[in-house]
Amino acid sequence: MIGLEALQAVQYVTVKGKRLAIVEADDWEAMVEWLETVEDTRVAKEAYAQLQAAGGNRQRAGWLKWDAVREELT
Prior knowledge:
- The longest helix is centred in the middle third of the chain and has 29 residues.
- The protein has one domain.
- With 74 residues, the protein is an alpha+beta fold.
- Strands 1-2 form a two-stranded antiparallel ribbon.
- It is elongated, with a radius of gyration of 20 Å.
């Protein structure tokens, strides 16, 4: 199930005057994955735009070399 389908599958209940949305755990996980993909796509597009603006020069775009940051990230 994709994120939009999971959002459409939500059910509502009212508890103590508050309206709550109820989703199945699998649907919730699908929505989280969908949102992560949306965010990853946004970050990738921004990075690509920065690289283009720097004329394809990774250093001018502010990209770091993997060897310089590997130990911090692993």
